Amino acid sequence: MPSLSASAILFDFDGVLVDSTTVVAAQYTRWAQEQGLDAEALVNFAHGVRTVEVIRQWAPHLDAEAETKRIEEREAHDPAVTVMPGAVDLLKSLPQGRWGIVTSGGRMLATTRIRVLGLPEPSVLVTADDVVRGKPDPEPYTKGAQLLGLKPADCMVVEDAPAGIRAAQAAGMRVISMPSTYPVEALDEADFLVSGLEQVRVQLDAHGGKLRIEF
Fold first, then answer.
1. Total structural domains in the chain?
2. Which stretches of the chain are DSSP H helices?
3. Which tens digits make up the pLDDT trace of 124-147?
4. CB 47 within 8 A of CB 68
5. pTM for the full predicted model
6. Catalytic hit among 14, 19, 137, 160
7. 206 lies in the same domain as 150
8. 14 flagged as catalytic
């Protein structure tokens, strides 16, 4: 069983802590059809990318902020989102101040889902509203480390999308990935691969300074 050490863990949200893949696909498909766009290609592009950047890329003639609000309000009220297996137990095993969430979704969407699904409150929450450049740019993960008071190299990341893997690695972080949204072969840039969060165990080392991560 591999064993790694880190000072903290930063989790992506959709596809890692919550299962929203079908909701994201459904709402982007709905929006793409309304705009006369290729829904399948758009959905494939959109996972792990800020909604506002999806809009800017695919419909630059529209008001990106307004369309982002429309899509994320639909997602926030879609009841099909569920907690990923193992997510609650893993988060509850982590000391406060040693983990955070870095999501490409907006703050309203993330906080609504955390509340509705009863997830533990993160010490740090970095959303699309908190950065200028989203994943695959390193800014979201760099900001997450800064808010935890840590160097990027001291943080481990859990991701499910190539854009997120690239963002974390560009920030200087190691990445554990899981094939919840993309197939295994699409995640070959990750440092480590697990089947799901149930496989991950975390505890403080003997001196209480580092987290020992086993999977």
1. 2
2. 21-35, 39-46, 51-58, 64-76, 87-92, 107-117, 139-148, 162-170
3. 999 999 999 999 999 999 999 999
4. no
5. 0.90
6. 14
7. yes
8. yes
DSSP letter at 98? S
Are both 71 and 38 inside the same structural domain? yes
Residues 94 and 178 in one domain: yes
pLDDT (tens digit per residue) in 161-212: 999 999 999 999 999 999 999 999 999 999 999 999 999 999 988 776 899 9
| Domain that includes residue 46, residue range | 21-76
Q: Final residue of a domain: which of 59, 76, 93?
A: 76
| 62, two tokens | 């529209």
Element housing 78 (H / E): none
Give CA angle at 95 (198, 15), nearest 5°: 40
**16 with 26, same domain?**
no
Which strand ranges, in their side-by-side order, compose the sheet holding 3-6?
A: 3-6, 211-214, 201-204
Q: What is the CATH number of the domain that holds 196?
A: 3.40.50.1000
Residue 130 to residue 214: CA distance in whole angstroms: 31
12 is catalytic: yes
CB atoms within 10 A of CB 210: 16
